[in-house]
């Protein structure tokens, strides 16, 4: 159950007064208890560590290395990436190998049934490359199907939200341009662990077991993900030889084994047998796109994101608006900073709801949306003393996602920022035959409003939440980073940059710092914000800040778990890599 800050005193008083109503004295006592408990949480519960230097909330020092670095949300995947680097593999090789392992070990967040996006710094070319490896909707599923079947939105699970999985094609596109080792070497660790097994980590076990009641009814799920009739628990050994066989087919037959061979035929058969529309033709005609990353300057740092159909430019819009304020003077824990950040997010997300979509079907006004002049206009809409209930999108010429983010860097200075996901939960639940993986449910993110930029259409890419990020300074690479977690991502991208640039944190502290999360904005799937949404603040923000935000008109909720997962690699002026990993996840940064 979620409670607002203003609800809690009354509820506590209710219990203190024998459930007969809230007497004035009961409410006063309740407020005192709330104040004390919240203050204690802020002082003692903010991931405080007994460290002799640095911020008290930092979980550890940055990891330092010169030859190579990897940061992933699964320690065994990090070690696999380092092994590939030590064998002479490139940063891209290491990223592919780690991603393949994570698809096996973190089926709660990703897999070869999902999509992939990446930003690559090429040391040789002295430039960034962007890859959009997201898939399209089935060509045989018409827009009229949903109205004909009385569906007001696309379901979260089952056959209807399934779109073409783009990850495998993304691997081969990345490998062809930047790979050094053969693909068989990159997929060998994942095949080994699939056949021999691995111990399931804590958070993955938690989310895996939480998904069972929702997904176990879908054909193939139990056989692949519930050996012995249940999901694995923390520390238990899980193997997936079906996936090992599928990966070996990809090694032997290349990307066409997945999109034009036996794997594609099995997906086609399974979907037809279970009321789906994704077909062999959809898979055989799939392509990824190399795209130009887009950027904005924030106090001398160039922050790079990929253009829509992803939501990355929302982070750039937030930063552009906030650049007009002296955040360093306001302070990280101040109500004024939290308020301004929240209002900037609301403004950016209204544009996100209206304009972010597949550019092959609409001309998204990216250049205008991320311009400084547009930010100046939007900034004027913010009342510095009061939270807005709603904003309209500007006029210009999801928090349920589960994802993995990883970043790698090699001895030559190449760096990779890669994100991959099956979207909601473990995906659609649709687990084809003997293939050992689940198909994504990304198609849920289409709008069913006719004329909307993100309206469902056959053969179209849905709006995407997963976004990799990169930062350069004076034309040189500075940091590769990302944050997992649906609509959390652009908010945390902006906060990481602000934490480092405005508040002077190092790469690990910037991820460990207590986070601000605003929810309830308008969405590309037709939901509208009419009540201002609500704020969730991690432990570490003082009671005074929370109280002031309530007085400014914000709704505050106490929540555990929705704040995302962060990895980063920074390259300093000495050429030393500084790695950071998320204290909220199971991950690890390591180098050599």
From TrEMBL:
InterPro entries associated with the record: GGT-like_enzyme, GGT_lsub, GGT_peptidase, GGT_ssub_C, Ntn_hydrolases_N
Glycoprotein found in the keyword field: no
Molecular function GO terms recorded: leukotriene C4 gamma-glutamyl transferase activity
Catalytic activity: an N-terminal (5-L-glutamyl)-[peptide] + an alpha-amino acid = 5-L-glutamyl amino acid + an N-terminal L-alpha-aminoacyl-[peptide]; an S-substituted glutathione + H2O = an S-substituted L-cysteinylglycine + L-glutamate; glutathione + H2O = L-cysteinylglycine + L-glutamate
Signal sequence, renumbered to the chain: none
Keyword check for Hydrolase: yes
Record keywords: Acyltransferase, Glutathione biosynthesis, Hydrolase, Transferase, Zymogen
Entry EC no(s): 2.3.2.2, 3.4.19.13
Pathway in which the depicted protein is active: Sulfur metabolism; glutathione metabolism
TM region positions: none
PTM text: Cleaved by autocatalysis into a large and a small subunit.
Pfam name, any one: G_glu_transpept
NCBIfam families in the record: g_glut_trans
PANTHER family: GAMMA-GLUTAMYLTRANSPEPTIDASE (AFU_ORTHOLOGUE AFUA_4G13580)
Family: Belongs to the gamma-glutamyltransferase family.
Subunit structure: This enzyme consists of two polypeptide chains, which are synthesized in precursor form from a single polypeptide.
UniProt-recorded name of the protein: Glutathione hydrolase proenzyme
Source organism per UniProt: Microbulbifer bruguierae
């Amino acid at each position: 159950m979620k409670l607002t800050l203003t609800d809690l005193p009354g509820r506590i008083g209710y219990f203190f007064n024998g459930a007969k109503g809230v007497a004035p004295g009961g409410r006063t006592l309740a407020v005192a208890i709330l104040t004390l408990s919240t203050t204690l949480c802020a002082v003692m519960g903010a991931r405080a560590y007994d460290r002799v230097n640095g911020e008290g909330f930092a979980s550890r020092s940055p990891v330092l290395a010169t030859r190579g670095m990897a940061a992933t949300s699964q320690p065994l995947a990090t070690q696999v990436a380092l092994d590939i680097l030590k064998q002479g593999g490139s940063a891209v090789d290491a990223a592919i190998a780690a991603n393949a392992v994570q698809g096996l070990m973190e089926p709660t967040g990703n897999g070869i049934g999902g999509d992939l996006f990446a930003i690559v710094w090429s040391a040789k070319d002295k430039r960034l490359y962007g890859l959009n490896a997201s898939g399209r909707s089935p060509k045989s599923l018409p827009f009229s199907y949903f109205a004909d079947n009385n569906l007001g939105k696309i379901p979260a699970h089952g056959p209807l939200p399934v779109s073409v999985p783009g990850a495998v094609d993304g691997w081969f596109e990345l490998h062809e341009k930047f790979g050094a080792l053969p693909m068989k070497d990159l997929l060998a660790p994942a095949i080994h662990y699939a056949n021999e097994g691995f111990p399931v980590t804590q958070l993955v076990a938690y989310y895996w077991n939480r998904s069972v009641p929702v997904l176990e009814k879908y054909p193939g799920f139990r056989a692949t993900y519930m050996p012995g009739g249940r999901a694995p628990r923390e520390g238990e050994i899980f193997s997936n030889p079906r996936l090992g066989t599928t990966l070996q087919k990809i090694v032997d037959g290349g990307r066409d084994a997945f999109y034009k061979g036996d794997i594609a035929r099995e997906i086609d058969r399974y979907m037809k047998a279970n009321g789906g529309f994704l077909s062999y033709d959809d898979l055989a005609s799939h392509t990824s796109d190399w795209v130009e990353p887009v950027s904005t300057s924030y106090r001398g740092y160039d922050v790079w994101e990929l253009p829509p159909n992803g939501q990355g430019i929302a982070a750039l819009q937030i930063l552009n608006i906030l650049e007009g304020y002296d955040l360093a003077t306001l302070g990280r824990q101040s109500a004024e900073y939290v308020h301004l950040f929240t209002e900037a997010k609301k403004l950016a997300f209204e544009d996100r709801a209206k304009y972010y979509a597949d550019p092959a079907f609409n001309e998204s006004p990216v250049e205008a949306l991320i311009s400084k002049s547009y930010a100046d206009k939007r900034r004027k809409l913010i009342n510095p003393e009061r939270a807005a209930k709603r904003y309209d999108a500007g006029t210009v010429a999801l928090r349920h996602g589960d994802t993995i983010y990883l970043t790698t860097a090699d001895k030559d200075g190449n760096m990779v920022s890669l994100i991959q996901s099956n979207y909601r939960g473990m995906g659609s639940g649709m687990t084809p035959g003997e293939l050992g993986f689940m198909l994504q449910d990304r198609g849920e993110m289409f709008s069913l409003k006719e004329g909307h930029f993100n309206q469902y259409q056959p053969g179209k890419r849905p709006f995407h939440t997963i976004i990799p990020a990169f930062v350069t300074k004076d034309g040189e690479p500075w940091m590769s980073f990302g944050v997992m977690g649906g609509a959390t991502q652009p908010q945390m991208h902006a906060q990481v940059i602000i934490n480092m640039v405005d508040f002077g944190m190092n790469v690990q502290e910037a991820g460990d710092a207590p986070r601000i999360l605003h929810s309830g904005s308008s969405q590309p799937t037709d939901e509208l914000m009419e009540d201002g949404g609500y704020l969730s603040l991690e432990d570490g923000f003082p009671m005074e800040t929370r109280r002031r935000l309530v007085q400014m008109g914000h709704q505050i909720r106490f929540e555990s778990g929705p704040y995302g997962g962060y990895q980063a690699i920074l390259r300093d002026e000495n050429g030393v890599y500084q790695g950071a990993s998320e204290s909220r996840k199971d991950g690890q940064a390591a180098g050599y």
